[in-house]
Amino acid sequence: MSSKSMYQSKSPENPFINNSGFIEFKNVSIQFNTPRKGMIEALAPTNLKIEPGSFNSLIGPSGCGKTTLLNAVGGFVTLTTGTIELDGEPVKGINPNIGVVFQQYALFPWFTALGNVLFALKRFPITKEERLERAFSALREVGLEGRERTYPGQLSGGMRQRVALARTFVSSPIVLLMDEPFGALDAQTRVVMHEILLRIWEAHKVTVIFVTHDVDEALILSDRAYVMSAAPGKIIETVKIEQERPRNVDQVDAAFLKNRNHIIGLLRNPRADNY
User: Fold this and answer.
1) Could you tell me the strand order of the sheet in which 224-228 lies?
2) Which end of the chain, N or C, is surrounded by fewer C-beta atoms within 10 Å?
């Protein structure tokens, strides 16, 4: 089996590239009841359409609702109003077509890298041989060939995040949610992870929603950056990023600088009632 056959097939031009993953927010708001402050509004009413196969970043001040919005897509929180639809179907609870990568890896320390990736395939009605072939292929794709029998505690932070990425992609998601996945990595390792992530995304065209505090990271990775206000969270502007890839923060052009300065300006005055 080729590595491409790990992924769902929906494109007539290339049967190995996924064309689904259209996400739509329809008047979505989220409130939480807290012991100290009572009812708080975490996400203001939001209407949003995210194109299938696109790479999207959420950026905003701490506590503005970025992770709440991400968790809503993943089916991890209850909506107060509205609906979120994936390819026209309401998201209700955890959806097997949606993969998640966290900052803290969430790997099983008693499993090897291979064992962690295999665990994601337990629910699939496939043979043991096929599971192994898919898992080896996924680890090879993130550059961990030869490290399959290594335990997470023996790997660097960047390598552990590669295992987490392989574990997510091996189950063929059509949407990938990433909550500051590279925030704990050093600058050099982050650059490597950006390259690996973009290579996988460009090959398989899943819809990515990526939470970050780093303006440059959003501009390097994304097709669009959604800038959020301070709580209650609200998308105050969508910044379309049209520079060709690959993008390098050390070799920026005028358009990159213009987008960077514009987003920084929005973040310095991020009140929703100003928009």
Assistant:
1) 98-101, 175-179, 207-212, 55-59, 224-228, 235-240
2) N
Q: 94-137, pLDDT tens digit by residue? A: 898 999 998 787 899 999 999 999 999 988 888 899 999 999 99
Residue 96: its pLDDT value, please?
Answer: 87
Kindly give, in sequence order, each residue whose CB lies less than 8 Å from that of residue 140, ignoring residues fewer than 6 positions away: 3
Token reading at 151: 């335990």
As given in the structure block, the two tokens for residue 129 are 């041989």
> What domains, with CATH codes, occur in the chain?
3-97+173-269 (3.40.50.300)
* Spatial CA neighbour of 136 closest among 115, 120, 114, 152: 114
Average pLDDT, integer, range 131-153: 95
User: d(Cα 173, Cα 156) in Å, to the nearest integer?
Assistant: 26
Q: Average the pLDDT over each of 20-29, 42-51, 74-83, 247-256 and give the range with the smallest value.
A: 247-256
- The CA distance from 76 to 13, in Å, is 35
Report whether 8 contacts 174 (CB < 8 A).
yes
Measured at the alpha carbon of residue 61, what is the angle toward residues 57 and 65, in degrees to the nearest 5?
70
Block residue for tokens 């009140």: 271
Which amino acid type is present at position 131? Answer: R
SS3 212: strand
User: Mean pLDDT, the chain, as a whole number?
Assistant: 88
Q: How many whole angstroms separate alpha carbon 262 and alpha carbon 256?
A: 10
